[in-house]
Amino acid sequence: MSNALASATSPYLRQHAENPVHWQEWSAAALAEATRRDVPILLSVGYAACHWCHVMAHESFEDVEVADAMNSDFVCIKVDREERPDLDAVYMNATVALTGQGGWPMTCFLTPDGRPFFCGTYYPKPAFLELLAAVAQTWRTRRSEVEQAGDHISGELRAMASGLPGGGPPVEPQLCDRAVAAVLADEDTVHGGFGAAPKFPPSALLEALLRNHERTGDPAPLAAVQRTCSAMARGGLYDQLAGGFARYSVDAAWVVPHFEKMLYDNAQLLRVYAHWARRSGDPFAHRIARETARFMLDELRADGMFVSSLDADAAGVEGLTYSWTVDQLREILGVGDGDWAATLFGVTSTGTFERGASVLQLRGEPADPVRFDRVRTALLAARAQRPQPGRDDKVVTAWNGLAITALVEAGFALRRPALLAAAAECARSVLDLHVVGGRLRRASLGGVVGASAAILEDHAALATGLMTLYQAQPEPHWLDEAMALLDVALDHFADPARDGRWFDVADDAEQLVSRPADPLDGATPAGASLMAEALQMAAHLAPGGRADRYAAAAEATVAGAAVVLDRAPRSGGHWLAVAEAAVRGPIQIAVACDSADSALLAVARAVAPGGAVVLGGPTGSTELLRERPRIGDTDAAYVCRGRTCDLPVTTAEDLAATLAPSV
Q1: For domain 11-160, which architecture applies?
Q2: Angle at 436 between CA 433 and CA 440, to 5 degrees
Q3: Spermatogenesis-associated protein 20-like TRX domain: which residues (predicted)?
Q4: Distance linking the first and last C-alpha atoms of the chain
Q5: pLDDT tens-digit series, residues 114-159
Q6: HEC states along 59-107?
Q7: Looking at domain 173-311+392-583, which CATH architecture does it have?
Q8: Burial zone of 622 (CB within 10 Å; 0-12 exposed, 13-18 middle, 19+ buried)
């Protein structure tokens, strides 16, 4: 055997193609090789932007002594968690169950048929060598114990995949309000965000809080959004020079980030900041939304689609590209501008990060914007000469779906048609490349689609993106493609034994030791909560009986997650956003107009709450506009909540009053 990763469609796997380890991709052939040799599988899972994955690679996987031990006693399989989230979910559940915590790199030892019997995360070289020897010895001398452990753990994993318990409370406004109150009780009102360090951007929760404010008029959720969004964008989590958000903050005050930048974070945050800007008119919210969109277009775009991430490291050093000292600022800008920039950006003589350097913050708007633009331009030019973080050019379907939705909604909120055009180009490219033989694929690299089947989140996020785009460009093929994805999901991912329950992998996908069905939202929304959002949209855009099918599935899906909102609302941020839409109807606004430039349609898009469906066009041009005419020579807006409709309105004032919060 030899290292077989050179032709992988994952940049993370390719990073390990020169290791002396005989890495294989996950495949039936690799498992068969373990059976033939009668040795365990050493499964290593990570992703390209992961700092500690790089550390373990340098310490162990590039080391000949470690590689010899791995090659001698194991079949070694390397997995990109972003390309194979199904494998990551199964073995992360095992790791958490065995150790009480998870993370990447993830290191699991499996029987040849894939049953886990020992799991962990990062190991320094000495500890890893000891572990390899101990596992190999146990396999040889205490095989029956290993087999028993594999059976027991696999049984527990199958039990864990049973999903949420039934019997939750009804999904009604009171449930949403209680969930919001519980979330707000966990807010860090000093630094923004929720809970203690490390702090991750709570994108879905912020979207849910905005929707709650729009429904109730309660100022408390909006204030929490403003505090958290301001704190994140003022701190080191946000790139003060080029825009875009890092993965998380290692401290409570958002000062020092873990520097990797993920597409899925920035897409979700673009949506949040655009909605905050739309709702509040705050110039700061507008600026951050604009800059985040620009970052995505400038730094994460390839062939019309969006790639996965930028690395945390450059030249093997975390944060090297982004950290500064006072002397560096003076050298680049001169003493006057250098000292001014140091004060403005919070760069100190002792540093806020490692090696005496600081991560740039911007705790207030600069009093001299002309000077600020000059300084920022000079620092960006200097930064471009530094070692740059690597880029994971893998295109993930679900994350591109999130990006399409965010770009359309930001395009309307910021009045930037170029963002709508970028969303349409992304949608066309993903559909052209990632749909193969009528079925969706998970990822591609450099125009070559991978073999991994799409999972639930891919179908749901892309369907939502396409239907959001359809509301901007009512071209039938966007809706047709979205409905095709939803029909596949209903046929292959829905649990036939329980309405409203979803599996993350299809019934005709590779059979693993358990079939993942994670209902909780994490860094990205759960596949099931994304599917609920997609079905809500489709119920109002699809024709006839298909709409009824989607509506019933949406209602059952949201109802099944009520227990999350009741018991652990911070683990259900996107569920809460979907529930907020559900208890308002969801709202549909159909604007009968003869022009895409209709002033009333623009108002509808500006005042419609998050989760509403807004569609404009001539009478009869779409399902939502069937038998809904203009009033005389005046454009008319038809507002419905679920199956209950108001009388049409023809003025911006009346439309705003119709959609005002119920207080």
Answers
A1: 3-Layer(aba) Sandwich (3.40)
A2: 85
A3: 3-157
A4: 69
A5: 999 999 999 999 999 999 999 999 999 999 999 999 999 999 888 8
A6: HHHCCHHHHHHHHHHCEEEEEECCCCHHHHHHHHHHHHHHHCCCCCCEE
A7: Alpha/alpha barrel (1.50)
A8: buried
